[in-house]
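Sanity check

After download, print the first record. It should look like this:
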Amino acid sequence: MKYKNISYLFILITLASFSLFFIGCEAVDNTIGDDVRDPYLGEWMFLESFKSTESQSYMVTISKDPNNSSQVILENFANAGQGITVTGIATSTQIVVSSQIISNGWTVNGSGKTDNSDKTIMSWTLSVEAGGTKDYYTATATLQ
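Expected structure tokens:
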């Protein structure tokens, strides 16, 4: 009878040990969440106004910067030309383009904000310095 109790106790301890092992080996989800850059990716139609009477429209392509998980690349920002890019920092509500000298010689900066309920429209303020003259613009960008 004594051996039966010891065998029962051994089996009970072994099962308890195995249950701890399986709990300890449970997969852990380390993902932080969706990439905040995702809603900004794609082709955006910028309708820009200058001095309240002049306006122009142009396309800007926004893509992820593969070298920095918080940055995006904007091609043709400020209508600088195809193949000319700037980088911006993306948050859940805006993109900020810090002052940068781009390949055509312009210095640009700006920021675009979304409405939390509609991520397909951004309101932008930006500046372009070219040839010693600095101009300020506002624009509405719509995801195409």
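If your output differs, re-run the checksum step. Summary of this record's structure: The first helix runs from residue 2 to 24.
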